[in-house]
Specification:
Number of strands: 17
Number of domains: 3
Helix content: 40-55%
Number of helices: 17
Length: about 450
């Protein structure tokens, strides 16, 4: 039975020290009861309380890690059924499938494409996260050779896929330090797979077609000493994927069913329906790992964008650092413009200036991530704030003229800005799309 906030509070030190990041012990107890924090956040909790609260304080979905160093990945540890209630924390890890029966040249080509399948969007780098290596040959030597080829070509975390422990074991010795995900334990092989995962301190995927079978299997595997698990329901139709993913999330988060409190994964290898539709549903509906079978840009780039949109905090807009940015190699005579630090606004304006080929200076003003008109209406974009931003970035020392181009949407601030800054105000277009033509004519 889950403990209430009051039950938890009685076991806390009641010092109200705020060392946990929450003002009071009662507030911390409430967050703990709602699975919004972990007991380890309190540095003063007694061992007796730890023992009493340990089970209750565990997140409804376990945090699972694989990879190492800069490429380490985390999935799971989610607390929300709907993104708008708070946010989703650990985005879907995209992986590409590689088979060990492919020749070395083909494998190297896929890995090179995977390494280069990245682009920047609103200041964030979109990229592939993992490589899934499948032992199609069922031969340990062939699989190990393929793993070695991939290991030499990239540093991304690996998924080692075989249902035979004796096939995975030699290859695992090559990459165990990088903490790959072992895939997969089933009702027939779980003992051997659990032994491999435990000995090498690796996460383990468990695979079964139903909730009951998976719950039984996770019980056996955790009893063998492996705690970091990923659930694989096997090949399903698009409709089944949607239903299963939703039910799983509810069982883990709302019913607190520990046997299913792990992230899930989906594999597009056997999907015969629309790949992109399946991938989109899996990404939107809670997949921790998604194994793709294509690196075509038309497939991959929309998925990157969808994932970014879903896993961006809906309460905190993506922001750019307040600073003076040089575009197209400007000098002291180049025009000066300003915009807000809302990423989408900044990168739109930046792109339109680059298109004009006119060397320019762009002052980004911190408006707490609000767009131009919204910031102006909320008093987050005022003449005083613009002047302060210009002073902070040292615009006067880099620009030899006294003009500034302001967004047409805030033309009403031109008089006050002139008064506060002493600069000659030039009102730019209301729409950024007209900025390129405006700068060329200017």
């Amino acid at each position: 039975m889950a403990l209430t906030a009051l039950d938890i509070f009685k076991l806390l030190p009641k010092t109200n020290c705020s060392d946990c990041g929450v003002p009071t012990c009662l507030a911390f107890a409430m967050k703990l009861a709602n699975k919004q924090t972990e007991l380890s956040a309190c540095p003063h909790v007694s061992e007796e309380a730890k023992n009493a609260l340990d089970a209750s304080s565990q997140p409804p979905m376990r945090l699972v890690k694989f990879g190492s160093g800069e490429t380490e990945l985390e999935i799971g540890n989610e607390t929300e059924l709907f993104r708008h209630e708070k946010k989703f924390f650990h985005e879907t890890a995209f992986s590409i499938l590689v088979e060990d029966t492919w020749d070395t040249a083909k494998i190297e080509s896929i890995i090179e494409t995977a390494n280069n399948s990245k682009f920047e969007r609103v200041g964030q780098i979109m990229k592939l996260d993992m490589i899934a290596l499948k032992a199609t040959s069922d031969n340990a030597e062939t699989f190990t050779k393929a793993v070695e080829t991939v290991k030499n070509k990239c540093s991304l975390p690996l998924i080692l896929m075989s249902q035979k422990p004796e096939v995975i074991e030699p290859a695992l010795k090559l990459v165990a330090a990088n903490k790959p995900l072992i895939h997969a334990a089933t009702g027939d092989n779980w003992e051997g797979m659990a032994k491999l995962a435990k000995e090498n301190n690796c996460a383990l995927a468990v695979s079964a077609p139903t909730f009951d079978a998976l719950a039984e299997l996770t019980g056996k595997v955790t009893g063998a000493g492996v705690q970091d698990l990923v659930l694989d329901f096997g090949p399903k139709s698009l409709g089944e994927t949607l239903v299963i993913s939703t039910i799983h999330r509810r069982l883990a988060l709302k019913k607190n069913l520990r046997a299913l409190g792990y992230p899930i994964m989906w594999n597009l290898e056997h999907v015969s329906e629309n790949d992109s539709a399946f991938a989109a549903v899996a990404t939107m509906k809670y997949s921790g790992i998604l194994i793709l079978k294509s690196l075509e840009p038309w497939m991959l780039y929309p998925m990157y964008t969808l994932r970014q949109n879903i896993y961006t905090d809906p309460q905190v807009p993506i922001q750019v650092k307040q600073d003076l940015y040089a575009i197209n190699n400007p000098d002291e005579n180049s025009p000066l413009l300003f915009t807000t630090n809302f990423s989408l606004t900044y990168f739109t304006v930046q792109g339109d200036i680059e298109t004009s080929k006119v060397p320019s200076w762009l002052q980004v003003v911190n408006t707490e991530g609000l767009s131009v008109m919204t910031a102006f209406a909320a008093d987050k974009l005022t003449p005083d704030i613009v002047v302060s931003a210009l002073e902070e970035s040292g615009a006067s020392s880099k620009i030899g003229h006294n003009k500034i181009i302001i967004p047409g949407m805030v033309s009403r601030m031109s008089g006050k800005l002139n008064e506060k800054s002493g600069r000659e105000i030039v009102v730019g277009p209301r729409d950024s799309s007209k900025l390129s033509k405006f700068l060329k004519e200017l």
